């Protein structure tokens, strides 16, 4: 099908594509990767520090510290998004700020802020999980699949 | 403006953290998660070093393991809590190490019930309890209660 599409293009279209290719700015992929790595790594370091704080000062073990740490990171991301700092971090770091759990917090609160003018129920309530909803759905589903695989392997392996 | 917000956030965060700094830890306990502490084994019933034969032998046995670099032992009657730290790059094998160590210790030292853990929290609390017992800063009954709580904490999953 793409070959057929290529054939059907007019000369003008082909010329335009050539012109576009000539003027198109090259994406600095390596630079973006380094930025994402550094900022994503920084978030993870902060997360590790928070989990150590929970272990050190509260009754959480390494086994149980994951949930409060994620919740705290999401909360920090909510604050930073509300103050408009996370947007700047996102512009600088790209995927480095979207992939960690803080990206989840950012997705929720930015959608909530965006739809605030439409009211609390139909605006904030119904649009808050517009993007984060897919994260929850696929997260739960993949956890379900992994649990089934683990159970099956457990039954086979004893 | 942004710097001001960042400073305010940092101040609030520090204020929250300062509320947590109530633990009466010495330098060894403060750095227990980062540095090697290697305290002497201790028995809650007899906190002197007179009848420490078994505990010392267990410690030597645990330290023979190549994956482990720091051990703390607290004994309470027939129960012995063995908390240790695993070398960072060996943490992938944490479960196997724990399983093998428990099996080896049970085989070698019959009549003792071992509670083996590689969790940082259990290690930290064991170091704290060890220090309090050594300095006679905790009554025996309270120490026994803390030991029991530590064993329960080790079993917690969520």
Automatic annotation (TrEMBL), chain A:
InterPro entries for this protein: MFS_trans_sf, Spore_V_AC, SpoVA
Keyword Transmembrane: yes
Assigned keywords, A-Z: Membrane, Transmembrane, Transmembrane helix
Xref: Pfam families: SpoVAC_SpoVAEB (PF03862)
Spans through the membrane: 36-57, 69-86, 93-113, 133-153
NCBIfam families: spore_V_AC
Protein name, as recorded: Stage V sporulation protein AC
Organism encoding this protein: Peribacillus huizhouensis
TrEMBL record, chain B:
Signal sequence region: 1-23
Keywords: Signal
Signal is among the record's keywords: yes
Superkingdom: Bacteria
Protein name per its UniProtKB record: Sporulation protein
